[in-house]
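ok so dumb question maybe but i'm new to this and my supervisor (M.) told me to 'just get the structure for Trypsin 3A1' and walked off. so i did the thing. is this what she meant?? sequence i used:
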Amino acid sequence: MYSIQLFVVALLLLIQQQLSSGAALNTTAGAIRNKDGRIVGGSEASISYFPHQVSIQMGTRHACGGSILTNRIILTAAHCVREYSKPQLYFVRAGSDEWARGGSFVGVRRIIPHAQFEEPTRLNHDIALLLLQQPLVYSPSIQPIALVSPMDFVHPQMPLYITGWGTTGTSLITETRLRYTSIFQVDHAECQATYMDVGVVTDTMICAGVPFGGRDSCQGDSGGPLITNIGHRWKLLGIVSWGIGCGQAQYPGIYTRVTAYNDWVAQTMKLLQ
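this is what came out, is it supposed to look like this??
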């Protein structure tokens, strides 16, 4: 399986080299242009290519990523909003390449984490919904994203994409501009074996990375989207949740599997609307 992944990764690297010389990558969900700089192993991206992405902030600092489901509702990881009884502490910036300025900056009215969310020993059911104080105004840089449904076919070798303002390594300094990179699903049984002595990888989680490491989400990317291109549009497959280190070959990133929570999301959205 990894031999196929290596071929696809090599092809993507070739495409990225072409992008750096000025060519555009046609993903059919948006053209991405590679820019200077290196999320881990990634490149800068315009918010107009990923208009569902938001920055979730506490005070004046970026804390986590999130995804726009409606003009009032944001999906993120439950561990990103531990102070869920104090929604006034959180803010959302949408529609900007930079987490610190531009776009729309809106307060949070209500937070509903999954009732069975467990921490700190396990990050199971790591999912939450945020209700904004005011509705976002849709534009080319602010758009909702649909969830992958059980009816959607996601091939194991299909490229997945992660975006965010997290660190590009082990430092705690977050990036000021949005970044993206491509990764692939990792066999679930292999992932469970890898993490056997570290934590429990459940069926409500997805493992994703690349065989040789070097591409991953990192600190500050938590809660952000794991997406793929289905039917010429982005769809949300997972939520950045946890992992060991950043971009380590032996430890793929762990993501909340959205399809396991489609019913919970639908029911909770009704409570918020």
